[in-house]
Amino acid sequence: MSTARSFIPMSTAATAPSTAAAAAAAPSSSRSFKIVFRSMQSLVLLVFLIGAVITVTRLILNPRPPAFRLDSLSLSGLPNVSDASSPPPKFDVRIRLTATNPNKKFGVVIGGVNLCLALIPSKCQLRPSSHNNKSSSEHYIGERRHGSFEVKASPSPGRGRRSKRSFQFTVDELLRKGSEVMSVKMDVSVKFMHAYWPSKRGSVVVECKDLRVGLSSTHIGNLKDGGKDCSVRFA
């Protein structure tokens, strides 16, 4: 009995230091967990910020070009073969276009349009000087929106052989088959705009092919088959 009584206090004294050590280690483990958790949070936030910067930079550096559709084309005052060597005084080209902005974050400003008409399969071309119907010559299209505008063109001045070469595009060429196939090529200046980033300027090449133009008795040509989607690429 005396041996059992002396054994119990010894066991209690042995377990007391281990309990105190475990209690002291618990706050240290909790602090380590918090440090690791906060570090992981900071790492995730850093990765997210880097991804956001890369995405925004990619959008800024690589905006998508606007899409163009040729809605109508009208030619009037075309010269005959006899006076094709000089610019016709009343020659006029009117093209109506619809431009669509495919970008989610950027508005697009459509600027100047340089126009070239060509007959197919012949290589007769006419390069009139073009201008928009607004005095500002700029058309703003918001994000994921579209807008229509008209381009008017008149003969660009030329001299000598250059003038004769330019105006071989005549009524006789259009009357040869009754309904000629034409192509329209435009160099369009564009500007991409964002509220918090500098604007980016560029140029796109717009090509509208296989356009059938009918010519009336008054030498006025109009697009016969309705609108036509055009191919677009950065210059």
TrEMBL record:
Does Membrane appear among the keywords? yes
* Gene Ontology CC annotation, any one: membrane
Q: Hey, what's the signal peptide range on this chain?
A: none
UniProt lists compositionally biased (Basic and acidic residues) regions at 136-149
Q: State its location(s).
A: Membrane
What segment(s) does the record annotate as region Disordered? 128-164
Q: What is its main location?
A: membrane
Q: Which residues cross the membrane?
A: 42-61
Sorted alphabetically, the keyword list is: Membrane, Transmembrane, Transmembrane helix
Q: What is this protein called?
A: Late embryogenesis abundant protein LEA-2 subgroup domain-containing protein
* Biological source species: Eucalyptus globulus (Tasmanian blue gum)
